[in-house]
Amino acid sequence: MLIEAVVGTAVVGLVCAASVYAVGRSANAQHNADLRAQAVEQLANRLAAQGVALCNTSSETITVAGQVGTVSVTCSQQSATVTLPGGGLAPVVLSGQFLIQAAVDMPLLGGRITVSSAGGS
Question: How far apart are CA 119 and CA 110, in angstroms?
């Protein structure tokens, strides 16, 4: 009877330890997701506030959980040709649009995060 009680206590202890481990991993995953969300929010705010002017900046940084990350910005000019069905109108070329990408690569975030936006000239 004593052995059964010891085995039962050990099994309950293992179940409790597994539960605590699972909750800890879940909390850690949520924390990491929150850090990534902070970085995305800061990058998106920069794109919204500065737009195409962000292409002309030499260095941008963001701060996540006290760590500073350097933002790399790439800009490329895009154009598109629009043709309406029916053939009655000539195709229209839309140019002067920029694809702007702001990215930060921080180990704290688990790698590279990129936010993109399209803006006019």
Answer: 29
